[in-house]
Amino acid sequence: MKTTFYMSLLLAGLHAVAHGQLLPSHHNGHDTNEHKHHAHEAIACLKLVPNNADFAFQFFKEITLEAPNKNIFFSPVSISTAFAMLALGARSTTQTQILEGLTFNLTEIQEKEIQEGFHNLIHMLSHPEGGVQLNMGNAIFLTEKLKPLKKFLDDAKALYQLEAFTTDFNNPMEAEKQINDYIERKTHGKIADLVKDMDPQTVMLLATFVFFKGSWEKPFKPEHTEEREFFVDAEMTVKVPMMYQTGRFDLYFDEELSCTVVRLHYNGSATAFLVLPAKGKMKQLEETLVKETVQEWSEHLFQSLVSLYFPKFSISGSYEITNTLNKMGIVDVFTDQADLSGITGTPDLKVSKVVHKAALDVDERGTEAAAGTAAEILTLSIHPTIEFNRPFLMLIFDRDTNSTLFIGKIVNPTITS
């Protein structure tokens, strides 16, 4: 009988504040040594980028199949990081399944390179440029009886900034409070009540979280926000506060996928792609979206003066993702076949379930706009209007590492969870 451990993953809190003209990221005031260090880290995590992106879009496809016509919001980088850390303590087939489930080809990249890559990725994401706040972290909560190997704890601390805590799972309410308080504190209140109904048999819980707060390069003006209609589907319309501004935006019309893409930069190194499929074309987009699609959008963007309407909304996604990961080939770790002997030295440990929760706020706020916004003067000229008044996708990337921080599908912006 395997002892189970509960992976209460991925707590992603995102607060996005609104807009921007697309400018390349600038690095100011860094000395040469810092540049060299940055470059080394970038090279180390560069190897992970294609795999992490493949994992992100595969996971998105699975989640959309499980929850059709619902809001979706999750952090792929959070899920990847948690399972890469778990792979540190996995052995044999269990470890292979985890790494291959994260879409790594183990004939092309070694486990050591993967671990170093994630270590550098976490470091780079945790030290972003000014204007973006991004906190990532990992914590392990252990029953007193379970003694993890010193090597596992040392490696996990060094590579993943892991914090370890002793927890009394025999008292589930007390354990839940300890874990939820820790997560809530670390995500600045964005993720609350992550774990509930804990099994008293739990002996270890692994939590991974990411908190993001970004301000648009040019915020929307609150006085321009007005209630407008949002068409959830053919039968249902809701009223939403719709933000508005006229300006030069990076655009692309993807004729093949019948969607409009608008790219907005945050201050710092984060970028949002807002993707508005034509009516009835969301399913086609969900089924075909891959990293190459986003790459193509990036390469074909052009600047154009438009009137942009974008809803102000808050949503969160909460998922029990064990089945999703099963479909992606991560199977043994959840069964009595699990080999997590690298964590405790004995093979009697398995993951009981994996919980992922993510939250997103989008509103007008941001840093003060730079003086002299020429676009404001051009509001009388004739230009197209793009209004996000039907279901759309929102993809948030970190430009420095090319990491997919968050993927969201907003079907109904008035439903918060």
Automatic annotation (TrEMBL):
<dbReference type="InterPro" id="IPR023795">
    <property type="entry name" value="Serpin_CS"/>
</dbReference>
<dbReference type="GO" id="GO:0004867">
    <property type="term" value="F:serine-type endopeptidase inhibitor activity"/>
</dbReference>
<protein>
    <recommendedName>
        <fullName>Serpin domain-containing protein</fullName>
    </recommendedName>
</protein>
<dbReference type="InterPro" id="IPR000215">
    <property type="entry name" value="Serpin_fam"/>
</dbReference>
<keyword id="KW-0722">Serine protease inhibitor</keyword>
<feature type="domain" description="Serpin">
    <location>
        <begin position="57"/>
        <end position="413"/>
    </location>
</feature>
<dbReference type="InterPro" id="IPR042178">
    <property type="entry name" value="Serpin_sf_1"/>
</dbReference>
<keyword id="KW-0732">Signal</keyword>
<dbReference type="GO" id="GO:0005615">
    <property type="term" value="C:extracellular space"/>
</dbReference>
<dbReference type="InterPro" id="IPR036186">
    <property type="entry name" value="Serpin_sf"/>
</dbReference>
<dbReference type="Pfam" id="PF00079">
    <property type="entry name" value="Serpin"/>
</dbReference>
<comment type="similarity">
    <text>Belongs to the serpin family.</text>
</comment>
<keyword id="KW-0646">Protease inhibitor</keyword>
<dbReference type="InterPro" id="IPR042185">
    <property type="entry name" value="Serpin_sf_2"/>
</dbReference>
<dbReference type="InterPro" id="IPR023796">
    <property type="entry name" value="Serpin_dom"/>
</dbReference>
<feature type="signal peptide">
    <location>
        <begin position="1"/>
        <end position="20"/>
    </location>
</feature>
<keyword id="KW-0325">Glycoprotein</keyword>
